[in-house]
Every structure is written in C-alpha cells, then in structure tokens.
C-alpha cells in the first residue's frame, strides 16, 4: 500500500506541474533515474508514476528519448478535412504564389515558417565540415575525376547496410545516387512516363512534386489524403486503370505529416503490382518518426520491383550537399541512363562525407536528438496555435517530419494573409501552393524545425492575431 | 648582309635539327632569348630566323607559349570526308556500342583513347584540394544549406568578369550554374523544346548530345559538318523552317575539332534570330585553342537573346566537380525553373573552389600550360598516326580541344576493331557512336589529352598494326 501511495503521490505532483505549466507542452520530463534520486524511491515506483501519467495521456514515451509532456488526451482543435476527389482538369497552377513565397527565402530577417528546411542549429555542421576535410584527403585525386554513373560505392554500401527497415532486402547494387530526393523523383518520372501520361499524387501535395509533374507534361490526379492515414486507397482503386505511375510520400507526407498504415502500404503495392504501375515512393522523412520505430516503406512489400524508393539527407543533415538516392527496382537501368544523360555523374565528396557519417554511428545518434527536438517542437507549436489562433482552427497531428497543416475559417484567404504576414516579417506556405485546383485557400503549412524560443512563440502569436483580424 | 646570313644560318641549323628529328614534331623550340645567348646575336636576328622557319611551315607560334615544331606544311594524310545530309528517320541508336565502350572506363590497365577526359597529370589537383579546404572554412555553415537556385553569386561574378571574349556583354545575373555542361544542355533542351520537336545537331556529333535528344523524345537532324569550318550553313538553311532548336559545339567540336569561322557564327545567329530558333551553344572547349586567341562564341553575335551559351570546367580542371553554367539569354527564367524542379540547387563548395581558382589568375596560368601540352600532343599523335597507320588514313586537323577523328579504309569496321583492341588493352571511340545513322563505321575518335610517353606511342603503333590487319 505504501508503494502505491508513493507512485500516486509522484504522479500527482507531476500532473500539477503540467497543469500549472511548470512542465510545459513538449517539455522533456526528468529521467526516471533523476526522479528516483529526487524522491528516494525505487525505479519501479517512478515507472509506475509515469505509466499513470501516460494512461491519462498527459505524457508520452519516445523511443530512446524518455517521456514528454503530451496533449493527445486533451486535443482542443480537430483534424483538417479531407478534400473531395476532383475530376475536372486543372484550374490554375499556383506558380506565381510559389515564386512569391520562394522570393522571401533569402531574407534573414523573416521568420521562415514557409521553408521545408531544418534550422542550422539542429544540424551537425561542424562534424560534417570535419568529415569533408577528411574525405578530401582520402579521395583519389580529391574527387576531381568522374565517379561511376551509379554513384559512390561507399555510400551505396552504407545505405544498404543501414536500411534495417528493409530487413536486408537491399544491396549496394540496388541503389543509384542522385542530387537529392527531388532529383531522384525527377529521374524516376522521366524514366517511367512520357508526356500526356497520368500520375496519381497526394492532395494536398508537396508543390515540388506537382511542379515536376507539370514540367514533364504529365496529368496529375490528386488523391484525397487523410491527415492521419494518408492517401485514400478506394480513390486510387477507382482511377487505377488510367494511371501510368504513382508518386507518394508514404511516411510523414509533406504537408500533412500523415503516415500510411502498414496494411495500406501492403494493399497499395498489391494493387499497383497487379496493374504493373510503378510507385515512386519519396521516403525522405522516414527517419524523423515520433513513434517507437522507423515506419516501413512501401518498398518493404515490393516483390515485383515496381517501387522506386527515394531518399535523401536534405531534411536531416545538409540540404546543400544535394545527396539523395533511389532504389529503383526493375527500372534501375532506365534510371542509370537518365542520370548519365542528365549530368553524367554526381560529385563524390559529399557522398563520401555522408557515407562516413552514417558508417560510424554518428548519424544514428544525431537522428535521435533531432527527432526528440522536432517532436518537442511539434507539441509546442500545437500548444501555441491552440492558444493564439481562433476557435475552430483545424490542425494536423503529424506523426513525424516537421510540417504542420492548418485549416482556417473559410473566410480567411491565406494567399492574402501571406502578403500581410510578410510585412510583419513572417513567412508561411499558403495552402493554394499544394494543389492544382482552386482549393485549400484557407489552409497553411508551417515548418516546425525552427529553434523554439520566445521570439518564435511570439511570431506564432502575431500570426494568430493576423488570422483573427481576417475573420 | 652579315645580318641576313646570320639568321639564315640559324634557320638552317634548326631546319636540320627538325629534319633529323633532334627537334621532334610538337617539341617546343628554345626561347628566342636562349637562342640569342647561344649564338650571341640580336633578338631581331633570332626572330627573323623563326619567321623564316614559320614561312616554311616548319614551326608554328603559339600565343604566350613560344614556337613549336609543326607539320602543317608537310601534311601527309588528308582530311576526313564530310557526310551527306540524310533525311530518312534514324536507323539505329548506337546505345549498345556506347554502353560497351563506357563499360571499359574503370579498367585502369586499358589505355583510354576513348574517354573525353583530360589526364590527371595535366590537372592542378593539389591546388584544387587546397582550394577546397579553404572554401569549407570560408563558406557559411560549410555549404550545408541550400544555395540560391541561380547558383553561386561568387562563381557567376567571376565567370562574367573573366569572359573577356564577350567584351563585357555578360553580367553575373545573366548566368545560371549547372551540374556540368551536359546538365546545362539537358536543361536548355528541356526548357525550349517539347517531345516531337526537331533539333539540328552536328554530324558526327558528340554522343552525349545525341542521347539527350533521344531521351527527350526529340527528332535530330544531323547537319553535315566540315572538319575545319564546322556545320554547313547551307544545309541548315534548307531545314530552318522545320527546326525548333539547334545544338552545336561551335569551338573545337567533339569529335571533329573544327572551329566555325567568325563569319559563319555571325550568319548562323542572324538566320536563327530571323526564325526565333534558340541555339544551344556548347562552348566547353573554347579555352583550349591552339591559335593565337580564344575564339569568340556565337553568343558574341547574339543581340536577340536566342543563344544559350553553355560552358564548364570538366575538360580543363575537374570533371568530377560537375561545375558548369549557361548564359541562357531570353530563356533565363525557364532555365531557373528547370533547375529548381530537377534538383533545387547545386552544391556550393565546388563552385566556390572554381570561382577562387579563376579569380586570382591561377586558371589562366593553368590553361596556358594545358594548351601548350595539348597542342604538342596533337602534333605527336598526328606524327605517330602518319607513321604507323595505313596509307590513305584520313585524319582531322583540330584547332583546339583534344579529340582526333580518323577515317579509315571502308573495309575497316571500327566496332569490330574495338573488340580486338580491347583485348590488347586499348580503348577508342568507334565512329558509329557519333551518329544515329548507319555511317562512320570506318571512323574512330582518339583522345589526345593523355600523357605522351613511349608506352602511349607504342599503343598507337599497335592500334595502327591492328587497323592494317583488318584491311
């Protein structure tokens, strides 16, 4: 009885700390060992206290990172709505809007909620620089010569070795390196489609994918996408015979942050295999999971070689290195040919630096810290939005990555809001950027891979105030 | 009178040295000052002697490099023939042949006459490595971040500054950086054509250009190309209304080494401007001239912005860096959009290294040495081929770059010869690689940017013997 009282007591203290915001949303809780020493109790007592808090959804465990103050149990805002399938031809490309948002990117005085880039403070820049100097010394002729078209053997081998999630199904020869994931997707679509072909994409969809599709003269079918479970399989089924390819971000899609459940992935691959339709799977956020383990890619379920699995380190290490890759399945020769024709080869140095960083465990360590920061930020953003944005704001519940999707009142036009926000030195991505149709005009995407501080919180507050003024 | 006797005497001595091959084909002559001291005569006397030798075509002056033993006056082999214009559709892509040749590239034991790559010994690798380490320290965050889509400001500024040949017509904002010249051409063709369009290319044509054209679903018209003056303007005129773009290497084309005369360039630009047809000008060999000055690009004559001037450092500094650029004229926005969609940006580091290398005069110095080596090699190769290849071999007379084009007896099939040569550890590029038609089967391209030594000479001898055996 005494034991039970103890853990209840501890749990109560912490619950009060959470209620009074001494422990704020997204904060990491003290480690079990710290609490044990503090209260002079057994490890088990602390564990029981944490379990009690977890069962009330007040805290959440994070693999290898400890416990965090959570809010799952007292979610105030509901999820964004799912778009209806549209069959009309595209209405208007959001190019001008995209250009406008991109033009603000180099202004350092603007808070860049719009970017899909991790804050420098979250990246191991000094370590990478050191790795670069080592690689220059190690490389034959300092990497001045052409590399084999398929890419650095070293990087491919390391990638294969570290792709635990594929359970050994991937060898170095199954990979081709690219200039980032965007380039991988471009190559894949070049390889498996011809102008006039039809490609299924998400909705809302990452505008980069939308732009590649347009540039290649392809037709896009936007598949309704659920903020938690991703693309709607029933919707895909309906258009299946018309498709020449699919291009999805299966894990923590940008902008919704949704995660396709394993059964969906399996069923999707089965359906596409039946029709021999290639799936370009952009898995660049897969390592930024908030759950207990890295989610499987669709590639895991691919027996026929139809899945072209794309990845990169642009979101986790160094966007400017332009290091990406693709495991193109049965389309490998086509991809190699594409790469040869487009650019002959990719620079060796960056690939070597990344291979080295992965090889000796530094990447794994870095990812653990990064995930924990992102998750904590995600909760803090959600908390701030709930506090400062109007009632009835809808907000996504990302399970990884670093994008939040907000759906505001129908009266708010986020393209107009953008112009107002820029004057206040705040940039975000208006919803209209993420579709070829006239929709999502009241939505916005926020990047939460920015360093959390008072200024950032205040920027969210000011943004919320702007939204309210637009009602 | 005494003076005249003196210079005639000196000229005679040197002529004898050339005849007896004490001074060999391609050798650099002693400097005027050296001869002056040796014979204790005036500078003018030596100059007169050299002029006399030059008038007999025994020696040739090279800008800023001195005089070289020449052979223009006693050329033994004639020029390769010019192909007739074909109007049939393409017969067969030489893809398998290209793959076969490429597959031999990583074998270090093979003499790579087939490659379009400068020997490492001719490149300033140590200096570039040093520049790289400096650049890492200088760059913001070690270049981990995205660079502006248009490319490094530093590199663009330096390129503009060093483009003396354009006489100040080029500003930093007129340039976009790319992953090498191949990538620049790919982007240009993506930007200004759509599948089914028609593009004029040279014949024989660099197979990389041919492959881009095919990959993009374009039709190629091969324009007859003269080994000295380049593409036949009359032939272009005939097909002009059918063209959507032209893609030519105006200076020292690969594989012929020809140089379009200025009047041709001017007329070509005029013709294309009239029809508003974009000219993609690949000028990656322009700095490797054997004459007295860097030839002008077509871009120089471009008032309407139809010329997309492409360049790179792949032939002169570091192929593996993948640093190239394009001055796309009025198509700039399209090119930037293409680059954004294909790969977002290019890595900063290599661009900074190249900018720095150009900026403080090291590039210029390096080019002077490289040109002199290449020219000397060109003469030595020609001499060896005249010595060891069958009579009636036809051989190009490149005015820059580092490619030789040979036309052998009709009985020789260089695709078959390639298989035989590979067994003897010699690789070259069979003529069939440079056309979409069933022609050039008795031609071959040899790279002369290899370090000249006894082994190399012997390899040419063995290759000549193989050719003879095939007669």
UniProtKB/TrEMBL annotation, chains A, B:
Domain HTH gntR-type: 4-72
Pfam families in the record: Aminotran_1_2, GntR
GO molecular function: transaminase activity
Keyword Transcription regulation appears in the UniProt entry: yes
Signal sequence region: none
PROSITE patterns in UniProt: HTH_GNTR (PS50949)
InterPro entries assigned: Aminotransferase_I/II_large, HTH_trans_reg/aminotransferase, PyrdxlP-dep_Trfase, PyrdxlP-dep_Trfase_major, PyrdxlP-dep_Trfase_small, Tscrpt_reg_HTH_GntR, WH-like_DNA-bd_sf, WH_DNA-bd_sf
Coiled-coil spans in chain: none
Keyword presence, Signal: no
Keywords: Aminotransferase, DNA-binding, Pyridoxal phosphate, Transcription, Transcription regulation, Transferase
Family: In the C-terminal section; belongs to the class-I pyridoxal-phosphate-dependent aminotransferase family.
Protein name: Aminotransferase class I/II-fold pyridoxal phosphate-dependent enzyme
